[in-house]
Design goal:
Elements (H helix, E strand, L loop, with lengths): L2 H11 L4 H4 L7 E9 L7 E4 L2 E2 L5 E6 L2 H7 L6 E5 H7 L5 E3 L7 E3 L1 H9 L1
Parallel strand pairs: 4-6
Antiparallel strand pairs: 1-2, 1-4, 1-5, 3-4, 6-7
Length: about 120
């Protein structure tokens, strides 16, 4: 079990400790669906895939490990591995769900991301 997965399990088991544990997401590797358009390496654009929940809310799906990603998406789906801080700085105004629909699911609102990034 990876560090991020262990952290998400701990958050799920100790909801009262969630706020104390969330900052640790900054130093964890996160798997995101998407790719980098490197046609011009100096000005590469990152394209992250969005999903929609049953109520129509859009979010960025991320995964705590390659195993979690493999459980949720088809084999040929492109993905990126980023440090939590790098990802959250890029998408701080978006809803993020780590491990959507898995036992370790963790929903992060833009407010959560702001709190995590700004301590």
């Amino acid at each position: 079990m990876g560090v991020l997965t262990e952290l998400l399990v701990e958050i799920a088991e100790l909801p009262a400790e969630r706020e104390k544990l969330l900052p640790h997401l900054l130093t964890a590797e996160v798997y995101c669906l998407g790719e980098v358009d490197d046609a011009d390496a100096e000005h590469a654009d990152m394209h992250l895939l969005e999903w929609e929940d049953p109520r129509g809310h859009r979010f960025i799906p991320c995964f705590s490990s390659m195993d979690a990603l493999s459980e949720s998406v088809e084999e040929d789906t492109p993905y990126l591995v980023l440090m939590g801080r790098d990802l959250f700085e890029l998408i701080s105004s978006e809803m993020v769900i780590i491990d959507p629909e898995l036992e370790t699911e963790c929903v992060l609102s833009p407010d959560d991301l702001h709190k995590i990034l700004n301590g």
